Amino acid sequence: MNREEREKAQERREKERNAAAKKLIDCLVKFLSKNDEAGRDLWHVLTALRGPDCDHGGGRATGGGQRGLKESTTARIRYAIGMRGGFAGGAQVSDNPIVAAPLSFDTFDVSVASYHFRNHYDSAVFALERLGYLKGEKKDVA
């Protein structure tokens, strides 16, 4: 295959992947629009997958700051649902046990573990339990 053929094949793959991503988004919107327990569970997991946005700062969490918070929460949720690395943006994944909800402010600095994120995390852990992703592998502290 020459260079031009490789480039065209790459363009086709990108178009196919973009179309698949659009289909998934459309399905998610339809599913979430029903506003039932399954939709709420999915929303909680999706919001917790993103986690805290900042990877710097101090704090008592493993690794310090929001990076430690992400390792102790978001990275573990990602692993629990089957993510194993190699994801867009270099998503952090950890095979350590899920930290039991509710997430305690005693474990993380209050300035780092915002109330808003804690609610997303706690709701996601309970949703993962209902959906069968967690089967007793939680622990009580980060």
Give your account of this protein's structure.
- This protein is an all-alpha fold.
- It has 2 domains: 1-33; 35-142, no CATH class.
- Helix content is 53%, strand content 0%.
- It is built from 5 helices and no strands.
- It has helices at 3-32, 37-50, 65-72, 74-80, 115-130.
- The protein is globular and about 60 Å long.
Ranges where pLDDT stays below 50 over 5 or more residues in a row are: 55-63
**SSE pattern, N- to C-terminal:** HHHHH
**Tally of alpha and pi helices:** 5
C-alpha-based Rg, rounded: 18 Å
Oligomer: single chain
Main structural class: mainly alpha
Q: Care to count the β-strands?
A: 0
Strand content: under 5%
Total number of domains:
2
Q: How much helix is in the residues? A: 40-55%
Distance between the terminal alpha carbons, to the nearest Å? 51 Å
Shape: globular
Overall pLDDT level: 79
| Biggest pleated sheet | none
Structural topology:
Layout: H1 3-32, H2 37-50, H3 65-72, H4 74-80, H5 115-130
Helix pairs in contact: 2-4, 2-5
Spell out the key features of this protein.
single chain; 142 residues; mainly alpha; 2 domains; globular
Structure, briefly:
The protein is an all-alpha fold. The protein is built from five helices and no strands.
